[in-house]
Design brief:
- The chain is an alpha/beta fold.
- 34% of the residues lie in helices and 12% in strands.
- Strands 1-3-5-6-7-8-9-10 form an eight-stranded parallel beta sheet. Strands 2-4 form a two-stranded antiparallel ribbon.
- The radius of gyration is 18 Å and the shape is globular.
- The termini are close together.
Length: 328
């Protein structure tokens, strides 16, 4: 059943930003030319030539849709750290997208009733521990990484102090899992969920993005690993972001069979990506499908499709140290 009140936190919402002034953001020329980037900017009516206006409009459009949602009260805005070389220095040459933590924190502070800060800290950076503590002190809710694009291996034991710092500060570690399409992925093998065991063994609360979906349509090879992580680690979770996308909804179908896994699923959308209802075709009553199709709000459509397909999930609120009244 869908929540009957505005109670959910979306733990997977991307904050997009063009470089402007001193916002600390960066986007590479090839990323600017990518088909996905061009499509998203066209869909949202944003202009690359007017970065300040584009950044403001993106955030305002997000807030308008979030406030109109029947089910979702808050969203965790996700930053995106860059690539760091072997010495721990930022390498913009190898960074396709950087959405700075200061920009994320500023946006969340400006809208505390709707937004939470999901900062991004690449553990390869030389000041990773200091950045974790700085962001925690500034009110961060979680730390998000995308190893495929940020080019680090989460299983590297040298990151154990980083994971211990996350555990100490009670910051969940949200990591991309599976193949990466949105950004220009490098080593796709670092998106394997097995590599998150080091963080779990060091006591960090881990959230695997996209419910450990591989993302290549035909074969969900990480399903056994997902089930094993749920059984072995009480502080392991996975979010349901992007599970309605055609390349991932096979995992959605699998997860309907495992109530124990559903107890560890957290609500998320992967905004600004679209939420599709095609996964429900032929699997729900026609009246239910019509309601999904008529639901234009992406947050509410994610709720409608997943609950319509009997996929259980919870809100991130229950994981937060000072759980707000939005717990489900």
């Amino acid at each position: 059943m869908a929540p009957t009140d505005k109670s959910l936190i979306d733990c997977h919402v991307h904050l997009a930003a063009l470089p402007e002034g001193d916002n600390g953001c960066h986007i590479s020329p090839r990323m600017l030319k990518s088909p996905l980037f061009r499509f998203l900017f066209w869909k949202h009516g944003l202009s690359v030539d007017r970065p300040r206006e584009a950044n403001e409009k993106y955030l305002e459009d997000l807030l308008v849709e979030l406030r109109a949602s029947r089910h979702v009260q808050k969203a965790v805005l996700l930053g995106m750290d860059g690539h760091y070389d072997s010495s721990g220095a930022l390498s913009l040459e190898h960074t396709d997208l950087l959405v700075s933590n200061d920009y994320v924190l500023k946006a969340a502070r400006a809208h505390p009733n709707e937004l939470l800060a999901g900062v991004s800290v690449n553990p390869q950076r030389r000041d990773a521990l200091d950045e974790v503590h700085r962001c925690a002190d500034a009110g961060a809710t979680l730390v998000k990484v995308l190893p495929n694009a940020q080019q680090f291996d989460p299983a590297d034991p040298k990151y154990k102090p980083f994971y211990r710092a996350l555990a100490e500060r009670k910051l969940p570690f949200l990591s991309h899992v599976g193949y990466e399409f949105s950004l220009i992925g490098k080593d796709q093998s670092v998106g394997e969920p097995d590599r998150l065991r080091v963080a779990l063994d060091e006591g960090a609360t881990v959230i695997a993005a996209h419910a450990c979906s591989y993302g290549l349509i035909l074969f969900e090879k990480f399903l056994p690993t997902l089930r094993d992580l749920v059984q072995r680690y009480p502080h392991f979770y996975a979010d349901i972001s992007a599970l309605t996308l055609p390349n991932r909804f096979r995992m959605l179908f699998h997860l309907r069979k495992y109530p124990d896994v559903q107890e560890r699923l957290l609500f998320g959308t992967d905004y600004p990506l679209s939420v599709f209802h095609i996964a429900a075709w032929g699997r729900v009553a026609l009246g239910t499908l019509r309601k999904m199709i008529r639901t234009k709000n992406r947050f509410d459509r994610q709720v409608a499709v997943c609950t319509g397909l009997n996929l259980g999930f919870r809100s991130l609120a229950g994981l937060l140290p000072r759980s707000p009244s939005t717990s489900r």
